[in-house]
Amino acid sequence: DTAVSQTPKYLVTQMGNDKSIKCEQNLGHDTMYWYKQDSKKFLKIMFSYNNKELIINETVPNRFSPKSPDKAHLNLHINSLELGDSAVYFCASSPRGTKLYGYTFGSGTRLTVV
Amino acid sequence: SQQGEEDPQALSIQEGENATMNCSYKTSINNLQWYRQNSGRGLVHLILIRSNEREKHSGRLRVTLDTSKKSSSLLITASRAADTASYFCATDVGGGSEKLVFGKGTKLTVNP
Fold first, then answer.
1. A23 and A89 in contact (C-beta within 8 Å)?
2. Is the pLDDT of residue B1 over 50?
3. For a Cys-Cys bond, which of A10, A54, A68, A96 suits A30, CB 3.0-4.6 Å?
4. Mutating which of B6, B28, B63, B99 best tests the A interface, going by the most A Cβ atoms within 10 A?
């Protein structure tokens, strides 16, 4: 059973389009995250939700909007896609806080904007 | 700004040798974690060391933490070709923040 699953795995789209990436975790974790990994492998947090409540919102263009319908799901919607949005997007989850536990990551969604 | 910096950026060794990767960070932390990322895959949590711990072991992994120097090291003993991956350190900076800040990673290649 996949603990953190993301769909789709690959996404190729044209500039200006709107797209969504879905994430689901079956671990019963309270907190979920979106990270962006650029072409140099640098991972940067974008958003974090704890039990459907937004707790971290880094400096991300407001074209990116996360939505958490319940604590097992955290989706990412991106409007008006730009070339610079091309990256791998990772969803992750953890029990409340990171003090004792590591994150469980999904396998990533490779977004290519052409 | 980035918290963790791994060193070296890339490391190539022969099977059976030990691999040591270092991580330096800037601010005080609650804990420091190491993750592995195989090519084209997600990150896998390896080990977590708390700020009041100095050394931790897990199988062939040994992690040390020196909070006075704000640095950590990951040692993989008796490396195998399957250990080929990128390794990232991540810091939990605490202070109510519930995020991990990742370094740029060390790309380890273990040659058969």
1. no
2. no
3. A96
4. B99
